[in-house]
Each structure stands twice: as structure tokens, then as C-alpha cells.
Amino acid sequence: MDCETFKDVVDRLAEEHEAEPRRTEPWEEVVMTILSQNTADENRDRAYDALVKEYETPDEILNAPEDRLRELIAPAGLANSKASYLKNAARHVVEERGGDTEWIREEPPDDVHDELTSIKGVGHKTADVILLFAADADYCPVDTHVDRVTGRLGVAPDMSPAKTREKLLEYRDDCGIDLRKAHVALISHGRATCHARSPECGECVVENVCEKYGVEE
Hints:
The chain has twelve helices and no strands. By secondary structure, the protein is mostly helical. It has two domains: 3-20 and 141-209, Endonuclease Iii, domain 2 (Orthogonal Bundle), CATH 1.10.1670; 26-135, Endonuclease III, domain 1.
């Protein structure tokens, strides 16, 4: 898909779904994003609410009994792994950054991304989410909705999530695509209209440029 078409797609989807990125504090976003891995938002929120009633700061999580962490975050699933990942993130912040997380907002995003992904349990997608919502950085985390919608539209056809991420960064650097806006627009469209099964193409505002369903061969 060429640059102008993709820009138009993003604008139309953002308007259709009234999509705007949320804004969160850095440590809150680190915790929420780890908890959100492979689970629904409502499960993440239940786990987060339970956790912060007892342990909220990096220092508190680092020093919390791991079995208690697992109990509190059980609603998010994969509690053993996620408790370990939270400990890893808290240890890095406390030992390497003195408990402060403002560096996530203040330092160059690519440097922050590299540092975040050095923490076990924080991959590219998790780091992209943290940077997008806590630092307003120009990234587009590739979840299942973004991957599916970009594939169908022809933005990143037949690509792995890792390759889709690379392609979206190319659109950002070469075309000036606002990836923050694109992420929220694409994920909203995937949830509301472009379902994995039985997409509602008749309700799709960008069907005319969709390579999989809307463009006549």
C-alpha cells in the first residue's frame, strides 16, 4: 500500500472509531502491559487492581513474596511467569535506575526500547506498548488485531508480527505515518469490524482499498 493510501486509511479509521491513545504513568504501564500478555483487558484490570492494593511501587513489588504476587495476579493468567517478569522489571528499575521510571519518558525512545527489551519478560511488543502509552512515542505495537487488519488491507501482507512491526516502522520513517494514531485506529477496527471470523465488510469504511476483501481482481 502506498503512503497516501495508508495515511487516508488511518484517518478514516480513526474518525470512524473515534480512536485516541490513552495516557498512563510509566511504572503503571509497565505493570499493566506485563499483566496484559495473552489475556483480555478485563482480566488484566482485575489483576492490576488487586495487585496495587498491596504492592504498587517497583520497590514494593521487588520485595513482595512471589507466592503472594501470584495469588494477586491470578485473574490475568500465567501467574507464575508474570510474577517473575514483574520481579525482573522491578529489580531493573530499582537496581539500575534507583526506583525511578521517568527515563522511559525522557530518554530517546529507541534507547528506552533497547533497555526495556533487555529485561526478561519484556519483548518488542511489550516495550512498544509501554513507549506508546507512557511516553507518547511513535510506535505501533503489533497485536492480533493490528496484524490481521494490516495483513488484509495490504499494508503488511503475509508477514509475521516481527516483519509487520518492521514494515510499520518503515511507513513511519519513509511516509510520516503517525503510528500512535495508526495503532489505536487499527486495533479498534479489528475489534469492531474486521473480525478474525466473519468480518463485517459491508460496514467497513476502508473496504474499497482492502486487498483481501474489497478490491476487485
